[in-house]
């Protein structure tokens, strides 16, 4: 019981000021000694309620943050994906949304679609490209309306290089 009072005075009193185990050990080593004192001071300080409330938790990230390389120009590389089906259906019968996001500026575009045909997909892309210009690379998933011969021929005529990816991350964030 006497040890507890000594630890309390050395750590929690006005003079102790919750300075942590190391400084409490430094303060007590000149005035007190008993076997296992360092271990008891560390245990006392780590169980101190006031210290736990104020303690700054520093965690080391396991994966270093690296900059993401972006294209040099807007609409040079775009991500394209589909949201399907939208509920409720719009008053004009649109059930799907074609999403496009520029990798340079993160500018999103969305076009409502009534069906998921390759023709409607190409028309929606043409509508966007008429405003933004034709991108060099189009990153998309393996949805059937992107992999059809019509869509591939359409992109070939435009001179855009399709890249297929399992997920298009930016589109998922916009949704």
From TrEMBL:
<dbReference type="InterPro" id="IPR050951">
    <property type="entry name" value="Retrovirus_Pol_polyprotein"/>
</dbReference>
<dbReference type="InterPro" id="IPR036397">
    <property type="entry name" value="RNaseH_sf"/>
</dbReference>
<dbReference type="GO" id="GO:0015074">
    <property type="term" value="P:DNA integration"/>
</dbReference>
<dbReference type="GO" id="GO:0003964">
    <property type="term" value="F:RNA-directed DNA polymerase activity"/>
</dbReference>
<dbReference type="Pfam" id="PF00665">
    <property type="entry name" value="rve"/>
</dbReference>
<dbReference type="InterPro" id="IPR041588">
    <property type="entry name" value="Integrase_H2C2"/>
</dbReference>
<dbReference type="InterPro" id="IPR012337">
    <property type="entry name" value="RNaseH-like_sf"/>
</dbReference>
<dbReference type="InterPro" id="IPR001584">
    <property type="entry name" value="Integrase_cat-core"/>
</dbReference>
<dbReference type="GO" id="GO:0003676">
    <property type="term" value="F:nucleic acid binding"/>
</dbReference>
<protein>
    <recommendedName>
        <fullName>RNA-directed DNA polymerase</fullName>
        <ecNumber>2.7.7.49</ecNumber>
    </recommendedName>
</protein>
<dbReference type="Pfam" id="PF17921">
    <property type="entry name" value="Integrase_H2C2"/>
</dbReference>
<feature type="domain" description="Integrase catalytic">
    <location>
        <begin position="70"/>
        <end position="159"/>
    </location>
</feature>
């Amino acid at each position: 019981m006497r040890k507890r009072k000594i630890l309390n005075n050395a750590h929690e009193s006005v003079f102790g000021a919750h300075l942590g185990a190391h400084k409490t050990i430094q303060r007590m080593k000149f005035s007190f000694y008993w076997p296992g004192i360092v271990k008891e001071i560390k245990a006392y300080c780590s169980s101190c309620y006031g210290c736990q409330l104020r303690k700054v938790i520093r965690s080391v990230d396991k994966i270093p943050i690296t900059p993401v390389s972006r294209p040099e120009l807007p609409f040079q590389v775009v991500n394209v994906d589909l949201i399907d089906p939208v509920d409720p259906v719009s008053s004009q019968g649109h059930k799907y949304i074609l999403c496009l996001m520029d990798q340079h500026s993160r500018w999103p575009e969305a076009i409502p679609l009534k069906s998921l045909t390759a023709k409607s997909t190409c028309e929606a892309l043409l509508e966007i490209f008429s405003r933004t210009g034709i991108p060099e690379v189009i990153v998309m998933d393996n949805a059937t309306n992107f992999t059809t011969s019509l869509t591939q021929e359409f992109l070939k005529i435009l001179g855009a290089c399709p890249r297929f990816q399992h997920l298009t991350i930016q589109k998922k964030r916009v949704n």
